[in-house]
Amino acid sequence: MPGSIFLEGDSIELRTIEESDLEFLQDGINDPRIRVPLGRAKPINRAQEREFFEEEVCGDDAIHLLIAADGEPVGAIGLDPIERYRQWGEIGYWIAPDFHGHGYGSDALSTTIEYAFTQLGLHKLAARVYEFNEPSMELLESVGFRREGVHRKDAFVDGEYKDTYWYGLLEDEWRENDP
């Protein structure tokens, strides 16, 4: 069972990540349908997933949450890093392929954006997406992110160098467009 509800969206809950979630997270991050769009080339074993949990999830420098729908884990979202002196954070997320198309990513992203601006006092959020990940680009743009630039042939992903697109969302832009 996922951890405590930290934030609630319309169709999802953002819950604390607990040790009991590590198997779901490890299975997800090793799934090629998630791993490739995230640009991960190496497998993650249980010990490595536990190390990530202990060092990153349980640390104070970032926020990592489990996305759940009806109490069932469906993905993960985080703000990592959070740079307090710049009032800036980078957002990252993934939804397990079996749960694509239900609006969980949009809801989790919108909920996290609101939290970042209204509770953490951040001024800007950034996200990066590889050139072939059009669904993620569309998702970011649907919640107000703007493409700010490209790092050409920046990452070696799935056997080829790929461009990385950088997206940004300023707090005042979000406030202007938030209903």
From TrEMBL:
InterPro entries, sorted: Acyl_CoA_acyltransferase, GNAT_dom, N-acetyltransferase
PROSITE patterns: GNAT (PS51186)
Keywords: Acyltransferase, Ribonucleoprotein, Ribosomal protein, Transferase
Domain N-acetyltransferase: 12-172
UniProt cross-references to Pfam families, sorted A to Z: Acetyltransf_3
Stretches of the chain forming a coiled coil according to its record: none
CDD domains: NAT_SF
MF-aspect GO terms: acyltransferase activity, transferring groups other than amino-acyl groups
Cellular-component GO terms for this entry: ribosome
Family indicated by similarity: Belongs to the acetyltransferase family. RimJ subfamily.
Descriptive protein name: Acetyltransferase, ribosomal protein N-acetylase
Species classification: Archaea, Methanobacteriati, Methanobacteriota, Stenosarchaea group, Halobacteria
